[in-house]
Amino acid sequence: MKNKLLWLVLLVFVAGCGKEDTDEYLLSLDKEKLVESLNYDKIFFYKFAKIALRSSAVRDTTLPEYQLFANRTRNVVNSFSKATTSGDQDISVTDAILMYKDYRAVSKLVKETDEDIFPTVVEAINMNYADKASPVVYLMGESKLYNENVEHAILSMIVLGTKDLGKDFALYECSKTNPEKLKDSEEKTLLEFIRGVLFFSHKLHYLSEDGISRNITWLDKHADIPLPYTKAFFGWRNFNDEQTRTAFLSMNYLFRGFDRLMMERDIDQERALKDFELFLGKANELGIENETVWAIESFLYLKKGKPEKALPALRKLKASPLCSEAERKSIQESIDYIESRDDDAALNAAYDKFFIAKIVAKYTFSVLAKINWEQVMTEKKVPHTAELFTTIDRFQKMSEAVSGYMSPAIVETGKKSLIEKSTNVMDKAKGLFK
User: Fold this and answer.
1) Which of 93, 116, 326, 428 is the residue whose CA sits 20 to 30 A from 229?
2) Are residues 329 and 384 in the same domain?
3) Residue 318 structural domain
């Protein structure tokens, strides 16, 4: 009986250990990390502001989802209105405090509510500029799902380039996308890639690898779908459709390689090197020369024990304006080690996987930051594009103004400021600091 019990314990232990090493288990941990990464006030206030805007497009004010927020969104909606109608970009201390008060009153509800139950941001802007007496046709079903996904993806890229919002808000937006549920289209594959890059930048490597692997399979299967947006996205103006597909595949291999390189299992390290070889092969086939190619070429040569062949690429990389002084110093260290024929030192120098990941991510985000989304949307004749960008700028101003009231010390400063302004203002904010 004791032997049977011992074997049972061993089996449970072995099964538990195996589970912790599977792709599925590690992916599930990343999903939990994603939720935790977005669990703080600045993200939830941003979500609250979006709910306020999107719910303002609801014409049937008896709907339960509208009623939940109706009394707490007026100050935010009025702030959006000021920006779009009068161009007033200033947010007063009073407005900031009242908006924060509204948010705090429903913060638990904000966390639990899916913003996508409301009309899209574009619909909200369009409807706020439409004739109030005219009938409103809301997006429904697959059409709404498609537009929401595209909207979240575009917003993720736009806020990525803003000073205050940046990567964390972009992560929130891309977490709301669900590209695998979209119909087969270029937008689907581009969205999956953007999502993968943002997950990678937040060290959610299993989530990123899962989506990018799905994307590579999709690209291999749908060779007939043209990629004009992708060509414009990366600035590959001189490429034909086939070359664009090859280049885009190479970028997917590149980031999947980095995801795998950052993982701990030996099998992932082996897979990473294969992905880098695929990336480099396609880049060389197309004659692409940039910081990413030089970084990967150097890394592969060093890994293969051929450091002298890495020197030309390292020297090109060192001369890149994208590299900081500290990064140039690290590259020069590797060059010095190689030239002294100290191969082991070269492989263990500052030029390691984290260093090249930083270089490649910097290059990729510099490319993404150059995209003028307002110009792209204007050329595509998207209605009220100017108002949409004014709204995004307002999101940023709100975030900057309200974030100051998310710590006790600054709340006290705001309280004194209100007292100094007037008794009337203090009456409006009564109870806020209790």
Assistant:
1) 116
2) no
3) 236-370
